[in-house]
């Protein structure tokens, strides 16, 4: 738990002398101070503050100096104290998902408020420590997946496999990035299937979508099993593998993310599968399981070096079967590295 002054400095370079940045987003705050806390964080041109209740003051004094703490019973008091300290009227609200209640309180104290996702933009570019944490999460995931494969025996239920995955994450002292998706046979046709009491048959198609979080950073992988048991499924799976291979070749700096998504749709269209493609081609990943950019034709982002994204083409025949392959990708200077290449 260390205040990342280098990251705060990057924000300070983007804000004016007479304005402050305020964020209530837990992921943004974790990025700056390395703790999960529900408390507004403020960056000024020359300093920073965290707004907390008296109950948190004692613990936070281990991380922050007293002059970086603003302490009061409620947000209205905290914001009034903040205004007296910073003596500015202009506020950059750093996250779109702040509560309406907090936004209205902010308007009572400050006249000029604009919303700009400054911190989430910085979070898209990972430093060495962040990439290292994601790689460690992947190594743990590989172990858990290998142990999970060994229990995929006839008669086991989806929910039992899901609970096994969650328990193994705890055994390795990590938490799940999200609720694992375990789907058998026709249940694979629902992209976000909720695991049920459905039992595994001898040659059942299996979809496992899982991820864990190490030191606050996520990984995310989807793997299919028993695809070779059915000729139709195996044919489409191989087309999906070929598509993912081509999509990975597009993942390099300066490429527009919408071009990756459009390529996937065009590729599948030649097989009459465009209407079976139910989601975007991927997403950013880091402190949160879904971060910008979204690999979608509707996203205007451009890939940059040291972004970490997923590439996850999938096709779904409702009520019959679905297929998805998902890997985590690190964008490098001239190409990309598949961080989850050894996870099978």
Question: Can you characterise this structure?
Answer:
The chain is of the alpha+beta class and 344 residues long. It has 2 domains: 5-123, Creatinase/prolidase N-terminal domain (Creatine Amidinohydrolase, Chain A, domain 1); 128-338, Creatine Amidinohydrolase. Helix content is 35%, strand content 21%. The chain contains 10 helices and 19 strands. It has helices spanning 5-12, 26-33, 54-60, 75-86, 100-109, 118-123, 128-149, 158-171, 231-250, 257-269, and strands at residues 19-23, 41-43, 48-52, 69-71, 90-93, 112-115, 175-176, 181-184, 206-210, 212-214, 217-218, 221-225, 282-284, 291-295, 308-311, 314-317, 321-324, 327-331, 336-338. The strands form 6 sheets. A 6-stranded mixed sheet has the order 4-3-2-1-5-6, sandwiched between helices. The chain starts with a helix and ends in a 6-residue tail after the last strand.
């Amino acid at each position: 738990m260390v205040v990342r002054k280098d990251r705060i400095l990057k924000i300070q370079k983007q804000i004016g002398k007479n304005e402050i940045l305020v964020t209530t987003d837990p992921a943004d705050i974790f990025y700056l101070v390395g703790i999960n806390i529900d408390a507004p964080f403020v960056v000024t041109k020359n300093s920073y503050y965290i707004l907390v209740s008296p109950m948190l003051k004692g613990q936070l004094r281990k991380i922050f100096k007293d002059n970086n703490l603003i302490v009061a019973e409620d947000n209205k008091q905290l914001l009034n104290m903040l205004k007296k300290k910073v003596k500015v009227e202009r506020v950059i609200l750093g996250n779109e998902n702040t509560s309406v209640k907090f936004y209205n309180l902010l308007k009572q104290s400050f006249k000029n408020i604009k919303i700009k996702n400054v911190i989430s933009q910085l979070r898209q570019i990972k430093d060495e420590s962040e990439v290292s944490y994601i790689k460690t999460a992947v190594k743990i995931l590989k172990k858990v997946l290998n142990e999970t494969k060994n229990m995929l025996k006839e008669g086991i239920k989806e929910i039992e496999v899901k609970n096994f995955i969650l328990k193994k994450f705890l055994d390795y002292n990590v938490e799940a990035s999200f609720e694992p998706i375990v789907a058998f046979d026709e249940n694979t046709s629902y992209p976000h299937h909720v695991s049920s009491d459905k039992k595994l048959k001898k040659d059942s198609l299996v979809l496992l979508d899982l991820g864990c979080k190490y030191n606050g950073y996520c990984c995310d992988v989807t793997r299919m099993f028993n695809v070779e048991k059915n000729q139709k499924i195996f044919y489409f799976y191989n087309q999906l593998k070929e598509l993912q291979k081509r999509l990975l070749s597009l993942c390099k700096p300066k490429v527009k993310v919408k071009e990756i998504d459009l390529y996937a749709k065009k590729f599948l269209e030649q097989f009459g599968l465009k209407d079976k493609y139910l989601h975007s081609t991927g997403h950013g990943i880091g402190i949160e399981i879904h971060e910008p950019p979204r690999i979608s034709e509707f996203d205007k982002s451009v890939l940059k070096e040291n972004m970490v994204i997923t590439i996850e083409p999938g096709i779904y025949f409702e009520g019959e079967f679905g297929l998805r392959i998902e890997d985590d990708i690190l964008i490098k200077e001239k190409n990309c590295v598949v961080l989850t290449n050894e996870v099978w």
